[in-house]
Amino acid sequence: MINKELRIGVIGVGAIGTEHIKRINHKIKGARVVGIYDVLEEEKKQLADEMGIMFYGSGEDLISSDDVDAILITSIDETHADYVLKALAQEKYVFCEKPLAIDSQSCAKIVEAEVKCGRRLVQVGFMRRYDKGYMELKKLIESKSYGEVLMLHCAHRNPESGLHYTTPMSIIQTAVHEIDVLHWLLQDDYVSVESILPKKQTKMTHTNLHDPQILVLETKNGVVIQLEIFVNCQFGYDIKCEVVCENGELGLVDPHYTYVKHNFSNQTPISPDWQTRFKEAYDTEFQLWVNGVLNHKLEGPSSWDGYVASVITTAGTESTNKGEKIKVMLQEKPSIY
Ligand SMILES: NC(=O)C1=CN([C@@H]2O[C@H](COP(=O)(O)OP(=O)(O)OC[C@H]3O[C@@H](n4cnc5c(N)ncnc54)[C@H](O)[C@@H]3O)[C@@H](O)[C@H]2O)C=CC1
Ligand SMILES: O=C1[C@@H](O)[C@H](O)[C@@H](O)[C@H](O)[C@H]1O
């Protein structure tokens, strides 16, 4: 039984976990964070004390606590599936940061467990669906004023990534955002994916990371998407989405509010990171999630969406390993989605 204010427990309090806690406690109406768990016990216990909230002895303790109505999972990718399944076993609402799991089999298990609960309890952190730019693009595409969509040229660029970041992570952790938002934008399914590792790489990378990479995705309606993933581009956080139609081109502009004209040049800033670029999208995402949980009606990205994205990321990684295009097939979509 959830009271008027949703009591949230957070598992994994690193970069985005900390951002989301601040967001929930200072911006979002109808919810507050009441407890956390992180494997870095000493450090995060101190943080919990500073915030005046509970530090749980394990993720499992937090999930099963009667003082926690809903779980927010912001721990590392590899841990998501297990925590989501544990939350579903308690029939609790759970918001899981992307990816829902690191492979499609684990996502399929989550879908199966949620279907057994008979209703939607899971939302996945695909926040780009709440970005004003992508929402406007969707309306423009659906207006059909520019004819049919023929192809897309996209890029996902991060200024830099650490030594922990590896070749498959470019697909599983980074490209997964486009994989989700583009099929939502086009309302179309993917039929194949091909991963290309260009011979020429940046000097800024290391032995375990091929950077940049390219994914080529094909949809049922025959749209071809070229997606560049470049996680050490140095110059900023740069997200491109150019939609080529029969009678026009539609695209995203980086949200910025100022420019500087000086010395015969006109400069506009570029977002430095994902926190800045998608700030408003995260706020909207969380307010709508809290409203959805309080009204028992989740409408954001589901486990099914997490599964669809992971079928492509799994096939994309297979394509990297085999050096060939991989055809993809989805299982039948259950009626709760
Ligand atoms: N939607 C978005 O744009 C973004 C999503 N993410 C996703 O959020 C998740 C966290 O990313 P970051 O905050 O950047 O990573 P991070 O490395 O800064 O934080 C992860 C935290 O999880 C903790 N942790 C590791 N294993 C754990 C376990 N078994 N149980 C509990 N805690 C554990 C770590 O100690 C650390 O504090 C990732 O899955 C990432 O893909 C991250 C950044 C942006
Ligand atoms: O989700 C995110 C990170 O986990 C990922 O590592 C970055 O590449 C993305 O740009 C960011 O949005």
From TrEMBL:
Superkingdom of the organism of origin: Bacteria
Native organism: Vagococcus luciliae
UniProt record similarity statement: Belongs to the Gfo/Idh/MocA family.
Keyword Nucleotidyltransferase: no
A Pfam family it matches: GFO_IDH_MocA
Subunit comment: Homotetramer.
Keyword Cell inner membrane: no
Residues covered by the Gfo/Idh/MocA-like oxidoreductase C-terminal domain: 138-328
Gfo/Idh/MocA-like oxidoreductase N-terminal domain sequence ranges: 6-126
Protein's UniProt name: Inositol 2-dehydrogenase/D-chiro-inositol 3-dehydrogenase
